[in-house]
Amino acid sequence: MSVQEKFQLYVYDGDYSLPSLDVECIKSILYTVVADVPVQVRILNNVKHCAFYSAPTFVHKNLLFKSFSETVLYLRTLNYNIDSNLSPKQCSETLAVSNLVQSKLKPVIEFVYWVDQRNCDEFTNVWFMKALPLPFNFIHTGKFKQKARDLIETLYPTETNLDLIKEYLNRTATDCLSILSTRLGASDYFFGLTPTTLDIVVYAHLAPLIKLPFPSNEINNIISMWPNLATFIKRIDAAYFPDLPKHSKYLKERERTTTSDDDVSYIAILILTVSATSLVLGFAFSRGIISSKVL
Amino acid sequence: MPLIDKISVELGAQEPWPKDVKLYQPYEVEQILLPDNANCLAVQAFLKMCHLDFQVEPRPNAEAMSPTLKVPFIKAGRFVTAELEGIVQFVNGKGISLTDKLDNEQKADMRAYMSLIHSVIEVAELYICWVDKETYNEVTSIRNGSIYPWPLNYIQNFAKRNQVIKKLKALEWYNKSIEEVFQEVENCCEALSIRLDGKNYFFEDNPTELDALVFGHLFTILTTPLPKSDLANIVRQHPQLINLVQRIEKEYFKKETRH
To answer: Chain A closest CA to B125's CA: distance in Å?
Structure first.
């Protein structure tokens, strides 16, 4: 038991009944839950964790695995394999469909999270700023934004109009979702009665788009065109994350920021007053209206 | 995928396949690079599978002429369409389709495998061409620079390399070691080979655009001499895929030369 207790998984915090807000972290957490790995999930919410680990990092003794795929490969060597019952053909399909999901839905997620200005300013950025400790919230959000922008730029090098890019992305997402829906059909999971890696990948890419309260998110409406995908997400939630709180840990702060117009103007007034007085005093002082002897 | 393509698909549907269709691509002998060549060949194979006439038109600046900045692109009458997906849609718009007989699930399968090839084999080809130092110095820089005069070839190579590296970074492939890249390709070939499962084509007896795409990439990998022959060796370990490639070559490309 002492060996197993040393499994640790460092992830970004979750919210809105999501285990984490980061796609890769969701994958790692869900895999460990499904495969029954006795792992201790740690959240990047203090300076020490943030300084030493990136998310998701799987730690066993002194071995570090910094991505989902590495983690899965390592867990397989320890006999935590959830794909062991699949036929070679199903494994081949897993690889193909998870690649499809990754290549079509990842840009959509990056766009909705970080490139869409309104979502980023009003939700994503605010949330990560609150969830991470001080110096790291700037570093991580900066990195996220840069990465998302790079991805969108390399995918659409000829297009600069964000609305058009959004339309293309929505179209590819629609394509991909209809493929997933056809593949899933009426069954519980993609391959039979137990979830496999493919189910995990699909869940990790769909759940954030469904659950997070983005100010503008058209994908949510698109997903609701395929009810079997929505029930698929609910099925996994019920089976593996039954007791995640629905209400937000950071929502109260979020509400304050949305109604914080008054706060901002108070600060602005204060700054203006201070600068105006100092300007007047400085002018008076330099012209000798107030002499230094008086002061 | 772009709006213009959508319009040309809708408008072009009314017209039959014009006679003077031209397929623009870079010079095959001295200029073209592995990933571009694979995509050009895939489109050629697809058009041949549909029994549509076209002429290959080599241009040194084909890439810059293309509406999506990627080769190849076709000019059919008044319409210009680029890349395999766009061209497939354009051809489907004229009522010619290789996937009529497939049900929805098979179509879904086909799209998934096509995206697998785009997101693994194509990216791996880019990696080998532009990140691997040996291949870059001996093949890529010389071929890519061949159409420019002296100082410009260095500048163009430099700019293009930065652009590709930026793309690989965004796709999270740049930090992979070359062994990891080969492993990805190996997994992908394995998956394709299993999916093929001894059949003539991926979907029973008739070829689809997936077969065209697989042919384009694997044939190019097998026939392009590179300083590192690992990619070709990986493909050679899968006799089923080699058979598929040879079958398509015999069926659709050999006839051409005899006529």
So the answer is: 17
Q: Does domain B104-258 have CATH number 1.20.1050.10?
A: yes
Q: Is the pLDDT of residue A193 over 50?
A: yes
Cβ(B185)–Cβ(B124) under 8 Å?
yes
Minimum CA–CA partner of A166 in chain B: B2
Query: Over the stretch B113-155, which tens digit does the pLDDT of each residue have?
Result: 999 999 999 999 999 999 999 999 999 999 999 999 989 999 9
User: Is A250:A128 a contact under the CB 8 Å cutoff?
Assistant: no
Cβ of residue A161 closer than 8 Å to a chain B Cβ:
no
Query: Which stretch, A8-12, A129-133, B42-46, has highest mean pLDDT?
Result: B42-46
Mean predicted confidence (pLDDT) in B75-83 = 88
Q: How many C-beta atoms surround the C-beta of residue B8 within 10 A? A: 22
Residue of A nearest to B69 (CA): A158
Q: Which residue of A has its CA nearest to B64?
A: A158
Q: Does domain A88-240 bear CATH number 1.20.1050.10?
A: yes
Asked whether residue B29 carries a pLDDT value surpassing 80, the answer given is: yes
Pick the CATH number of B3-93 from 2.130.10.10, 3.30.70.330, 3.20.20.70, 3.40.30.10: 3.40.30.10
Distances (CA, A) of B8 to A122, B175, B197: 39, 39, 38
Helix axis angle for B239-248 and B209-223, nearest 10°, is 100
Closest Cβ opposite residue B167 in set A89, A154, A180? A154
| CATH 3.65.10.10, domain A4-77, yes or no | no
Each domain of chain B, given as residue ranges in start order, spans 3-93, 104-258
pLDDT tens column, A95-113: 999 999 999 999 999 999 9
Res B236: pLDDT: 92
Is residue A85 predicted with pLDDT exceeding 70? yes
- The domain limits of chain A are 4-77, 88-240, 263-295
Q: How many CB pairs under 8 A join A and B?
A: 80
DSSP reduced 3-state for A72: helix
